[in-house]
Amino acid sequence: MNLYGKTAIVTGGAQGIGLAIATELASQGAVVTIADRSAEGAERSAAELTESGLRAFSVAADVTSAEAADAMVATHEERRGPLDILVNNAGISINGSIRKLTDEDWNRTLAVNLTGTMNCSRAAARVMGERRSGRIVNIASRAWLGWFGQSAYAASKGGVVSFTRSLAIELARLGITVNAIAPGLIDTPLIRNETPEVMERLLAAQPTGVIGTPEDVGWAVSYFAGSAGASTTGQVLYVCGGKSLYTRPA
Ligand code: NDP
Questions:
Q1: What's this model's pTM, rounded to 2 decimal places?
Q2: Is the CB of 139 within 6 Å of ligand 1?
């Protein structure tokens, strides 16, 4: 019960990696708010956790809206108590070569992945800063190092890494740590639209040759969120089957 007595918000927590993170934090004793743009999805996932004896609640929040991010934090504090842990997990991935990339896809990718992370971090930093205590964990991606056909996604996640490092410096004296996790290929609905051929190539490029699980990311988040991570800030932890080291030519 590493996180007993703590409260957390996980954005994009209705499914995939976010749900695994919420489950892990709640299993460690935290009271968790699952935030998602779909109220139904967030409610369903919070109910699943509650049924298994964990303490989870839901709130509808589209992270692209600063007002929604502020309201999400305010609602959490009002109903669940002081916010200790924010996990910025909500994200989208749109594939497409630069020659086919639309303005809409570029703007949407940055709005969710980067501006969304900023909106929620700003709202959390305001309340955490007053108490001089808090943990912010941002879900970036190994793709920020570069990946074929993902310039928009990679740029948004590179922004998340850069934002993480600068925010860590800014908030260190306020007792708030800010870290990032860079997952590689993880088995979630986000990647299930890929064709079998693309999946085969993605797996071939992974040094371990094995797809990661959402739980792998959940465990990494619990390190940054728990007492063991108290002195770690501004870092990027890769949960990517070795892909940050090199990728096998596919
Ligand atoms: P999923 O698509 O499975 O889940 C993402 C969740 O975020 C969904 O519930 C989605 O809702 C929600 N969401 C999307 N946009 C918003 C928004 N504007 N406001 C609030 N919630 C939103 O993705 P994953 O679980 O796979 O990914 C989670 C994170 O991990 C993302 O940041 C992703 O970039 C990152 N990641 C994933 C990898 C992978 O291989 N799966 C690899 C590297 C990084 P809805 O379904 O309604 O869109």
A1: 0.98
A2: yes
Tell me how far the alpha carbon of residue 174 is from its chain's centroid. Answer: 22
Pick the atom of ligand 1 nearest to 190's CA: 2
Asked if residue 184 lies in contact with residue 220, where contact means CB atoms within 8 angstroms, the answer is no
Ligand 1 midpoint to CA 173 (Å): 31
- The alpha carbon of residue 97 and the mean position of all alpha carbons in its chain are separated, in whole angstroms, by 25
Per-residue pLDDT at 193: 82
Per DSSP, the three-state class of 201 is helix
Cβ(112) to ligand 1 under 6 A? yes
64 lines ligand 1 (CB under 6 A): yes
Which residues form the catalytic set? 153
Judged on CB neighbours under 10 Å (0-12, 13-18, 19+), 192 is exposed
**Ligand 1 atom index nearest CA of 12:** 7
Determine the pLDDT at residue 249.
64
Task: Give residue 85 CA to ligand 1 midpoint distance, Å.
Answer: 19
Q: From the CA atom positions of the chain, what is the Rg in Å?
A: 17
From 74-83, 127-136, 144-153, the region with the lowest mean pLDDT: 144-153
> For residue 16, which of 215, 229, 236, 198 has the smallest C-alpha distance?
215
Residue of 36, 38, 181 with the most ligand 1 atoms within 8 Å of its CB, for mutation: 36
- For ligand 1, the distance from its centroid to the CA atom of residue 190, given in whole angstroms, is 6
| Domains and their CATH numbers in the chain | 7-237 (3.40.50.720)
pLDDT number for residue 247: 82
Mean pLDDT across 65-70: 98
